[in-house]
Input
Amino acid sequence: MNFNEITGQKQVINALINSIKNDRVGHAYLFVGPKGIGKKTVARDFAGMILCGNSHVIGSCMDCKSCRLFFSKSNPDYIELETEGTSIGVESIRNLQNSIAIRPVYSDKKVYLIPDADRMTIQAQNSLLKTLEEPPEYSVLILTTSNANALIDTIRSRASRYDFKKNTTNEIYEYLKNNFTENLEGIDFIASYSNGIIGIAKELAQSGELMA
Output
């Protein structure tokens, strides 16, 4: 996971790589963009790179114990918040905070991903703010959202914001051509219809309804 499979988002990716290269990984990140644009995919790749134990590699070495555990989805230093229902309540955030209080096991950092952070209730956001105000030196929080305005100002002001742009039609076309090699008759339509959202293009291609 070195951003190799990410389509577009070069400005965001280059900035994240440079933060690792220059040892300037922050405590909180806010990834903003439309649903399906790739925020969560980039966040997971970035987390793997942060946790890699090989200091001579910019990215994931895929060989150290931290990387092997990360790829097998069993690294205790990476927690992705999973919740049921339409909202993220304060109890979920308190559980996350209890986990943050425990130092990392295999890496210098401990990374937490909160997908669709705009689903947090106001009470949950205020609870998270306590961690953002006084984060442990080893913690990294990554929040993704398609609606940054749903987050309180104090959360937005304490996180480094990265805006994900829609892909070009050509980027979508190249992604489809490289990943869906059969029945490409509908590729031009999908590339145009997806409106720059890689997730929509992927879903349409996987359905096969417009590719034959």
Q: What stands out?
A: DSSP finds nine helices and five strands in the chain. The chain has a mean pLDDT of 91. The longest helix spans residues 39-51. The longest strand covers residues 139-145.
